[in-house]
Amino acid sequence: MRVPESQDKAVADHYVAYPYPTRDPAYEAKRLIEGSPSRLAEVEHYLFQGHLPSPFRALVAGGGTGDGAIQLAQHMASRGLEGEVVWLDLSPASQAVAEARAEVRGLTNIRFVQGSLLEAKALVGGDFDYVDCCGVLHHLDEPEAGLAALKAVLKPDGGMGVMVYGALGRRGVYDMQEMAETLAPTDLPPEQRLAIGQRLFKDLPASNWLKRNPFVRDHLDGGEAGFYDLLLHARDRAYTVSDFAALAACASMSVVSFIEPARYEPAVYLTDPKLIAATSVLSPLDRAILAERLAGNMTTHVAYLADVAHAGDAAAQPSDLNWVPVLRDPESRDALANAARSGKLVADTMGVKLTRIFPRRAPAILRRVDGVSALSDILRDIRKADASLTDDAFLRDFQALFSGLNGLNLMWLRRAD
Ligand SMILES: C[S@@+](CC[C@H](N)C(=O)[O-])C[C@H]1O[C@@H](n2cnc3c(N)ncnc32)[C@H](O)[C@@H]1O
Questions:
Q1: Which of 119, 234, 262, 276 could form a disulfide with 10 if both were Cys (CB 3.0 to 4.6 A apart)?
Q2: Is residue 37 part of a domain?
Q3: Does 262 have pLDDT greater than 50?
């Protein structure tokens, strides 16, 4: 469905009236809001073979109230990584929130630029190592033109972190948007549209698909801005995995990895060995297409993209002992090591239990993962109690552990210095 350009004003008015997501700058004093895409260690793993360039230049296109820009800038500052983060968005109201957040944190490595990402090159120049575009392309009149404009400011060996809406998990959302368009057309002021939309939502019968869809929550948990963004958006489309791959291909880009990778593997949903065997011969993209249909719960697709010429080797692979394993949540290390003693970890991901099998030495390895020690250091330490352990046996166990945790996006790799 292509929505006409006349909706540009409605989209701009929307984000002036309801900057999204709602953020309170004072919260920065308590906690950093983190998520995918654009955790720096995640970007390093998936797009830079475990070694970030320095200085590092990132563009956050459609930066909104600042989540991506603040996260990147804070991670860079904490690591002492030189460079800059450029926030680019149309919305002055969102800029005010994002700037206030940066100020509370004392971040000086963000540059704020107001304007359209379609004019990124003229507004912010080129040669970015990384572009974040989270929840924005699906609101453009021509997402392909948006992605092309962002690719044009990326270095050839750079990469992007993108989030677009997932078609199958948003069942009921578009019916609601169409009804809202009938009863509260986009030429009404946003406040009036919100009031009508809220009344309509309250009045939905129990059989309505939105009421029956447990996977979308923004209208319930996201305040007025969340309700408006989900159900009253003037221009919003959703992508299946195959639509998304086609969008990337228009800009000569390919998916390096979806996040979380395991959710895009049919084998995690199936139990029948014959079916699992049949899916194992499919291409990664065809497996992801099947996984989306099996799961039915994907409301968004988060993916790292790189140019087709190097997407295949952009991500780090645990091929030897020169890698530093990095846990997404270092404070969860002991809990993970304890879980590993039972031989498996069961994660509840949007209504589906995903089981990850751990190898025998997983607890011993995990207890030594500190984000600094290389696998060779970890092996040396384990050998103090197990002198016969060979490099190959250790690496095999680490690879199995890594596959289990990376599948849930809980572990990444950094190249040892
Ligand atoms: C759903 S919000 C997402 C904000 C942010 N990326 C995040 O994940 O929190 C979409 C943002 O895209 C911005 N936007 C929409 N069209 C744009 C365009 N052509 N150029 C730049 N920003 C745009 C809106 O102003 C809004 O702040």
A1: 234
A2: yes
A3: yes
